[in-house]
Amino acid sequence: MGEIQVLVEHRLGELRDITFEMLTKACELSEKTSSKVVSIILGKNVKEKAEKLSKYSDEVLVVDDDRLEYYNSDVYQMTLEKIVKERKPWLLMIAHTSYGIELAPSLAVSLNAPIVTDCIDLNVEDGKLMVIRQVYGGKLYAKIHVKKTDPAILTIRQGVVQPKELEKHGKINVLKPSIDLEAVKKKFIEYVAPAVGEVDITSADVIVAIGRGIKDKSNIPLAEELARLLGGVLACSRPIVDKGWLPQDRQVGSSGKTVKPKLYIALGISGAFQHILGMKNSQLIIAINKDPNAPIFNVSHYGVVEDLFKVVPTLIEKIKELKKQAT
Amino acid sequence: MNIVVCVKHVPDVSEIEVKVDPVKKDIDKSGLVFDINEWDDYAVEEALRIKEKFGGTVTVVTIGDESADSTLRKCLAKGADNAIRVTDPRIASWDPLVIAKILYKVVKDIHYDLILTGVQASDDGYSVVGQALAEMLGIPHATLVKKIEIDGGIVRVNRELEGGLEEIIELSLPALLTIQTGINEPRYVSIMGVRKAMRKEIKILNLDDLGLAREAVKEASPIEMVELYVPPVERKAEIITGSVDEVASKIVEIIKSRGLV
Predict the structure, then answer these.
(1) Distance from the B259 Cα atom to the nearest Cα atom in chain A, whole angstroms
(2) B interface mutation test: which of A246, A283, A302, A310 has the most B CBs within 10 A?
(3) How close does chain B come to A12, measured CA to CA in Å?
(4) Sign of the C-alpha dihedral, residues A16, A20, A21, A25?
(5) Which ipTM value was assigned to this complex?
């Protein structure tokens, strides 16, 4: 059927996991459609990364250029535009990440290609490209038929494909497309590392995490008391940080910290996928939420469908009793 | 500094069960409460703050039926100066490039220095429209913006990357920025603002007015919504039931059996 291209994502010298997730999916699809999987890596001093990528691809295209040292979607766009126009893939996969989001939509416009973003699955059914994506915060799925594939551009959600070890031996090709910095209207200045807080939630054995369901800042001490009684720390989902109720170093999720405690208690957290990415590998997850359909219950070991303000105070009393008996 | 903010009127489904309509291409909207998309609310606030600092106007634009006027009125009540709504039942509303094209036709003749919109909408969550609109207008863009500093013809922004990391980038104006939640604290609407907003006019346009009656309609889109459905249940959690007291006792038991208390 032609070529499936995958844009490799890397940052600060590391290939990011999503790259292998996309390549795994691309290989699966390539078998069904007799397509060739081509990975494209753009950057400075990225040639040695091509070896690893060749195991996952039928061909690796490398653009190694000083001007690609820092990610700049404008420079990526003009480079990819040239490669796509020349090679004419039927599908281009890009990560649905801070980098991919910046790049894919404007690339789609410049290539006059349809785009569907944040896909959690894709397939070819009777020769038709079908994708699945979540809508309404994951409460519903949408199945979409992408009718135009010259190419179609899809961005893929992180953490939804189980990456496989592959043993291809793709050939490595170094390209030298012209890059015109005159046309670039944005400039990378610097990275800002996350502020180091007083508490490191990644090293805690017990985490009590709060979400929107905590309702008001004045209710936070309730969750804090539970955390303290269990010798744990208080963490949260994104809305709590957005409201300024807890500092950013307490945020669990893709834009915050990834944690794997022995016990994770989620209070009033519905479980947006960004949050779940950061906590799903905890050893024991207990969720308390009023909404029986909250996605948090899909990753929890135990769930309570109830008002947290009823359950938590009773829970605190019971733990206190238990501790009294023990002493 | 003249600013255009693209906003969307969306249902708040954070604490309710969403149902699919019989045709399976849209949700059953009965009984749902609609409001401005959360990300767009932060974008409007950011626009108002920039206007208060540098002067100029704020124009809000939306695509939707007349119920979306309540979102536009809210923006006007907060301090926006102008409001435009594009409405047409023929729009291929699930295709983000169609939405961008409509906004392009609306915005291209407005004098603007800055265009803001939310990173994504809480309903379809594409994160496409802003960037695509910028490309159509031929202006630079930045997504996932958590901080904005304007200095002459340059805007310097912090973008949110993964894992708490941010990057600072600079763009030349005019530019389009997509705003991340948490960038500011959106203001509430004042009674005075509501009164003022009631007197303001909302400009209404359709696809014919924009010359898009052929391009932006459902039949012309290369993307087709096949089906909207409730995801298969993959529940892993064992649900603990009983009275509050029983539930709390069971949780303590579980924690205790793991030696965690």
Answers:
(1) 10
(2) A302
(3) 12
(4) positive
(5) 0.94
Alpha-carbon distance A37 to nearest alpha carbon in chain B (angstroms): 24
Q: Are residues A127 and A28 in the same domain?
A: yes
The answer to whether the Cβ–Cβ distance between B125 and A148 falls below 8 Å is: no
Secondary element (H or E) of residue A316: helix A308-326
Nearest-CB residue to B162 (from A97, A115, A242): A97
**CA dihedral over B219, B221, B226, B228, signed as positive or negative:** negative
**Mean pLDDT confidence for A185-207:** 92
In terms of phi and psi (left: phi > 0; alpha: psi -120 to 50; beta: otherwise), the region of A2 is left
Contact B123 A96 (CB under 8 A): no
Instruction: Encode pLDDT of B38-65 as tens digits.
Output: 999 999 999 999 999 999 999 999 999 9
Amino acid (1-letter code) at residue B56: G
In this prediction the pTM is 0.94
pLDDT, mean over chain B: 96
Strands (E), B23-179: 34-36, 58-63, 82-86, 114-118, 141-151, 154-160, 166-172, 175-179
Assigned token pair, B150: 């304007």
Complete DSSP assignment for B25-53? SSB--TTPPEEE-HHHHHHHHHHHHHHHH
Looking at domain B3-220, which of 3.40.50.620, 1.10.150.20, 3.30.230.70, 3.90.1150.10 is its CATH number?
3.40.50.620
pLDDT tens profile B236-247: 899 999 999 999
CATH code, domain with A11: 3.40.50.620
Angstrom CA distances, A240 to A191, B43, B127, B158, stand at 24, 19, 22, 20
Percent of chain B at pLDDT > 90 equals 95
Domain membership flag for residue A22 = yes
Are the Cβ atoms of A144 and B181 closer than 8 angstroms? no
Q: Tell how far CA A142 is from the center of its chain.
A: 19
Here the tokens at position B69 are 């006027």
Coil, helix or strand at residue B82: strand
Q: B133 CB contacts (<8 Å, ≥6 apart)?
A: B6, B100, B103, B104, B107, B115, B117, B176
Is residue A111 within a helix (H) or strand (E), and if so which, with residue range? helix A98-111
Say if residues A93 and A6 touch (Cβ distance below 8 Å): yes
Residues A207 and A280 reside in one and the same domain: yes
Residues A51, A163: one domain? Answer: yes
State the distance between the two ends of chain A, measured CA to CA, in whole angstroms. Answer: 71
Distance in angstroms (rounded) separating the CA atoms of residues A78 and B131: 15
Please give, rounded to a whole number of angstroms, the shortest distance from the CA of A287 to a CA of chain B: 9
Going by C-alpha positions, the residue among A325, A207, A217 that lies closest to residue A275 is A207
Comparing C-alpha atoms, which of A284, A210, A192 is closest to residue B256?
A: A284
> Which of B45, B250, B251, B253 to mutate to test binding with chain A, by most A CBs within 10 Å of its CB?
B251
